[in-house]
Amino acid sequence: MTIDEASKKTGLPKSTIRYYEKLNIVPPIKRNKNEVRVFDNTDIEWLLFVKQMRGANVSIKALVRYISLFKEGGSSIKSRIKLLTDELHKLQAHIFGLQAAEHSLSKKIEEYRTHVIPTEQKLV
Fold first, then answer.
1. Domain range holding 2?
2. Percent of the chain with pLDDT over 90
């Protein structure tokens, strides 16, 4: 499939796909005799994996490291698990921070509803 089709299938912009390939975050995409990228299902799976990892706030640097470890094969499994575990802990801390922010916003909105609005209405 073409890069247009891969973009539609993954929801990633073509520029992002090219960027990921340039950084070796995905394995090199095969090319036809005219040097046009030709994507197969494995390429799509890699792109979707990277998209999912980026959606989980995994950094480009961590993904480059993960792919490098992946290329080493089975001997790097422990290192890959550690990398993913570290990224999971970062994500959990981020989620905790978001939940705290959500709580603060909810509390502020409730204060407006229960205190500010009634007080302002008395002043009118």
1. 1-55
2. 84
**CB–CB of 62/83 below 8 Å?**
yes
Token representation of residue 104 = 């603060």
Contact 55, 20 (CB under 8 A): no
Does residue 40 sit in the same domain as residue 5?
Answer: yes
pLDDT tens across 23-73, in order? Answer: 989 988 999 999 999 999 999 999 999 999 999 999 999 999 999 999 899
Taking CA 85 as the corner, what is the angle to CA 79 and CA 86, rounded to the nearest 5 degrees? 90
CATH number at residue 21: 1.10.1660.10
Sequence letter at residue 62:
A
pTM (predicted TM-score):
0.77
The count of domains in the chain is 2
**Which pLDDT belongs to residue 123?**
81
Alpha-helix runs per DSSP H in the chain: 3-10, 14-22, 41-55, 60-72, 77-111, 117-123
User: Does residue 15 fall inside a structural domain?
Assistant: yes
